[in-house]
Specification:
Elements: H1 7-13, H2 20-40, H3 42-52, H4 62-86, H5 94-130, E1 147-153, E2 160-166
Antiparallel strand pairs: 1-2
């Protein structure tokens, strides 16, 4: 009650939130692995069910708990925005809270960027497999810009041939 501040605390902790990007990047894979092993292994499924029944799990599934870190950064960002809206601008915590929001927003965009990169690599892998795995296009520096049907016009007889283009 003497110094009600959170901005300075969050400012010190916010840089650690960037590591959530790695978690978010691997989230879909992790969820798929849990699903696969739950379907494949009755023993794994039973262990997971037993753990989920424990009071400490709060009647939530493993998947719900896995989703929590993905939602954490956007939640912090929303809370800080709301806090700043309600905080008087002459408050001692204003500048620290504003700086914390800036750092957390950067972490959120870092996390979103990691998701986009993984989705891009996933799409490139699908294209690579569609093309018969002849030309290795799966590379973090490659980016799918556009794909779709085009008409190729022959120079000699101006006949049109349908093609599917990956740019």
């Amino acid at each position: 009650t003497t110094t009600p501040r959170i901005g300075d605390i969050l400012q010190k902790l916010a840089p650690f939130l960037k590591m959530y990007g790695e978690y978010v990047k691997n989230f879909d894979n992790a969820m798929e692995l849990v699903k696969t092993w739950t379907e494949r292994s009755p023993q794994f499924k039973l262990i997971i069910q037993d753990i989920q029944k424990e009071k400490v799990c709060g009647n939530l599934t493993l998947q719900h708990h896995m989703l929590e870190p993905v939602q954490r950064i956007p939640r912090y960002e929303m809370l800080l925005k709301d806090y700043l809206r309600k905080l008087p601008q002459d408050s001692l915590d204003w500048k620290d809270a504003e700086k914390s929001l800036e750092i957390i927003s950067t972490a959120a965009s870092h996390s979103n960027s990691a998701i986009r990169k993984m989705e891009n690599l996933k799409k490139l892998l699908e294209i690579y497999e569609m093309l018969g795995e002849e030309e290795d296009i799966v590379n973090p520096s490659n980016e799918l810009i556009k794909e779709g049907q085009i008409l190729k016009l022959a120079a000699r007889n101006t006949s049109a041939q349908e093609r599917y283009l990956f740019l």
